[in-house]
Design a protein that fits this description.
Blueprint (H helix, E strand, L loop, with lengths): L2 H39 L15 E6 L5 E5 L2 E5 L5 E6 L7 E5 L5 E5 L4 E5 L5 E6 L3 H5 L4 E2 L5 E5 L6 E5 L5 E6 L11 H24 L12 H10 L1
Antiparallel strand pairs: 1-2, 2-3, 3-4, 5-6, 6-7, 7-8, 9-10, 10-11, 11-12
Length: 236
């Protein structure tokens, strides 16, 4: 096989790989947008054992045993002290922001901005108290979560690589809850949008690669097209 034929085959393989990989990334990013829209609408509530992407991380609280509660979109997700997902449940926040505070009895207090409600959940995610309180959201919004050892819990990069960072009294920082690699592409809006555009770009490059770089295979000396054969007859 000639060097030209080998180059053509390699370019074809690259073209096919870019098209397949780009399409897969674009589909993954598109699914992230769809999941984001469905969850933000509040129409669909996922079961408690399903962990959703941390695309809208907005609040954090910590219980006496070190359990960590994260406010994500219209949902609370509970993690153990080492960051393993435990359960999640929906919050009737009417699509708006909410603040969080965990009291001494490990009850989770929620203040919603849009519906102006004060909600109280137990550790299992059961709503045990609710009342209208327009001021409660502003009282607890942005409140720092502190455990019994004096460690503070704060949010890290709530848009691209969200997570919860624990800062101990010596100021040492450690990410205790981070986004899972398989959930990161499903986050919206930013990661999903990045994946969508990268995927579309790679697919377009793969589709146009043959037209830009492929050179027709050289014909052998014995192969003659109709036009060449007619020219030879005229010469004779």
């Amino acid at each position: 096989m000639s060097d030209g034929s080998k180059s053509i085959r390699r370019l074809k393989v690259w073209s096919r790989g870019l098209r397949v990989g780009g399409t897969a990334l674009a589909v993954w990013g598109g699914l992230g947008w769809i999941a984001f829209a469905v969850l933000a609408s509040g129409v669909v509530h996922l079961p408690g054992w399903v962990e959703v992407p941390m695309g809208e991380l907005q609040a954090v609280g910590v219980a006496s045993d070190g359990s960590i509660y994260c406010g994500i979109g219209d949902r609370i997700q509970m993690y153990d002290h080492s960051g393993r997902f435990v359960r999640g449940w929906p919050v009737p926040a009417a699509g708006g922001a909410f603040g969080m505070r965990v009291d001494g009895n490990d009850r989770i207090h929620i203040g919603t901005a849009r519906s102006e409600m004060h909600l109280v959940f137990d550790r299992q995610g059961r709503l045990i108290e609710e009342n209208r309180n327009p001021e409660y959201f502003f009282e607890i919004a942005g409140a720092r979560a502190v455990d019994g050892n004096g460690c503070r819990y704060t949010l890290r990069s709530p848009h691209l690589f969200p997570g919860v960072v624990r800062i101990d009294p010596s100021r040492a920082r450690r990410t205790v809850v981070g986004v899972r690699w398989y959930l990161w592409p499903l986050q919206a809006p930013l990661p999903a949008l990045v994946l969508l555009w990268i995927g579309l770009g790679l697919a377009a490059v793969g589709k146009g690669l043959p037209d830009l770089f492929l050179i027709p295979e050289p014909r052998s000396a014995g192969s003659q097209g109709p036009q060449s054969a007619a020219s030879m007859d005229r010469v004779r």
